[in-house]
Design a protein that fits this description.
- The strands form 3 sheets. This protein has a 6-stranded antiparallel β-sheet with strand order 4-5-6-9-8-7.
- It is built from 6 helices and 10 strands; from the N terminus they run H-H-H-E-E-E-E-H-E-E-H-E-H-E-E-E.
- It is α+β, with helices and mostly antiparallel strands and 253 residues long.
- The two termini are 31 Å apart.
- Helix 2 packs across helix 3.
- A hairpin with a 2-residue loop joins strand 8 and strand 9.
């Protein structure tokens, strides 16, 4: 790599450097590749290390870079599309579902979820925990709340907990005819348990997607999925296949 000197520009130097670095990420580095150390990068672009750190921090906020403890700064994978406007209605665990079952317990859900499910104050429900990984990195964690009436034959399954129990619950759900679903999305902060699972610090920005599944005229299940905001983007439509260019002079197509 040659040495690139930055010309005098009216915008903050770190912001111009961010653009130059972004172009270098697109043309010279692959996903997961570790960037050179700060000293070498600062020398290449002819800037102070403080300026370089500002640019790297901005690229991390935008999801272009990931700083991994014990590894260094790596090129982040493309943002994963989270479809919130899709007309396709399927039960969790259907063919093509990218979520992986982790565990299943029986417990009283949070009051807000109990209100949506219209269960009693102390009524327990099946709580399936699932995770989603892309390019070897955790990007989302989900809690799926399913009342007994949605899986009436589950008592015959000898799997008290764990991933096997989770898969059993998901196999039972399609016995109900899915009548529809709706989603709500909000920006939030990662709780301690979510942050640990998503390899982020507590308080990191996340997208919380709450999905209600309807069957037999009532809410049959509720999903609360927490996505890393730095690795995901919302899509409105069935395909979600919009190509995103990071160069501001090029438009999404």
């Amino acid at each position: 790599m040659g040495t690139t000197q930055l010309e005098s520009v009216p915008e903050p130097k770190y912001w111009h450097l961010k653009t130059v670095l972004s172009e270098a990420l697109d043309s010279e580095f692959s996903v997961g590749e570790i960037l050179p150390n700060e000293r070498d990068l600062a020398a290449r672009f002819g800037v102070a290390r403080a300026t370089l750190r500002q640019a790297l921090e901005q690229l991390e906020l935008e999801g272009r870079l990931q700083r991994r403890r014990g590894v260094g700064t790596t090129v982040a994978p493309p943002r994963m599309g989270v479809a919130v406007g899709s007309e396709q209605h399927t039960w969790p665990g259907a063919a093509g579902d990218a979520w992986q079952p982790v565990d299943c317990t029986v417990a009283v859900p949070p009051p807000a979820v109990a209100g949506i499910l219209e269960t009693g104050r102390n009524e327990q429900v099946h709580t399936v925990r699932r995770s989603r990984v892309t390019h070897g990195q955790p990007v989302a964690a989900e809690l799926l709340y399913i009342p007994d009436f949605s899986v009436p034959d589950l008592s015959a399954i000898d799997a008290p907990s764990g991933a096997a129990r989770a898969r059993a619950v998901l196999r039972e759900l399609p016995r109900l005819e899915l009548e529809g679903q709706d989603r709500a999305v909000e920006l939030g902060s990662a709780r301690a348990e979510d942050a640990k699972e998503l390899d982020r610090l507590p308080g990191a920005p996340v997208l919380v997607v709450t999905t209600r599944f309807f069957a037999e005229g009532r809410t049959a299940a509720v999903s609360v999925a927490t996505y890393r905001a730095d690795t995901c983007r919302l899509t409105f439509g069935d395909s979600g296949g919009v190509e995103i260019h990071h160069d501001p002079e090029r438009r999404a197509s």
